[in-house]
Amino acid sequence: MPADAPTILATSGGYVMGSRQAPQVGPILRYAVELSGASKPKVCAVNTAGGDSERWLGWSYAAIAAAGWTPTHLQVYPMPNVPDPTEHLLSCDVVWVGGGSVANLLALWRLHGYDEALRTAWENKVVLGGVSAGSLCWHVGGTTDSFTYELTPITNGLGFLPYSNCPHYDSEGRRRPLFQSLVADGTLPDGYATDDGAGLLFRGTELVEAVCDRDNSFGWQVQRGDDGAVETRLETRRLPA
């Protein structure tokens, strides 16, 4: 299923821990690469939300190379690593964004023009995806711990997808009730959430599939109703290991 339309895979997964406690490519990230239709995929790791950690960059390169793909990356710390981010992203098949502070990610991407470069890549059918902050960033907003230990709303996402988003829906106790309350009171638009290990595939701005890499992991739709938020569990396809 090649990327014949702008494609985003927004997830609470991607890498999994290997036998030596180092990240390796999991079913969800493998699915993102399959969506590109590339026979020799080039995968760009973007770890802005994690401060462009050198250790995570090394792990990303090792995991991507071990999968038989060509790794590359886009960074802002200590300075941008490419002269033209748009040209660099257009040379890739998949862009995978890691977790961390989505607030810092958004500020730095806008400062360096990566937001527009990513939009151009998306419009030109480079597959965009990511986990946690790398899921939330593509949406209008969602819930984040970027500002304090307590979860708070963030409403200045890139808005490629006109919905709100909540990762870690099942594993962090405050995520679910806060997300529902923010949708219910109109702070956030209707949106989608993912349990750990689940992902949501969008073609253009249309949700076409929910997937997962483990049992009892689901995607969810959350909409504003007359008496609060209405939560609907999505049919979620288990990806092969």
Physical arrangement of strands within the biggest beta sheet: 5-4-6-7-1-12-13-16
Distance between the termini: 18 Å
How many separate domains?
1
Percent of sequence in beta strands: 25-35%
- The CATH topology name reads Rossmann fold
Gyration radius from CA atoms, angstroms: 17 Å
Q: Averaged pLDDT, please? A: 95
| Total number of beta strands | 16
Large-scale geometry: globular
Structural class: alpha/beta
CATH class: Alpha Beta
> Helical percent range?
25-40%
- Listing every helix as H and every strand as E from the N terminus to the C terminus, the arrangement reads EEEHEHEHEHHEHEEEHEEEEEE
Major beta-sheet overview:
8 strands, mixed
SS summary, helix count: 7
Low-confidence stretches: none
Short structural description:
With about 240 residues, the chain is an alpha/beta fold. It has one domain: Class I glutamine amidotransferase (GATase) domain (Rossmann fold, 3-Layer(aba) Sandwich).
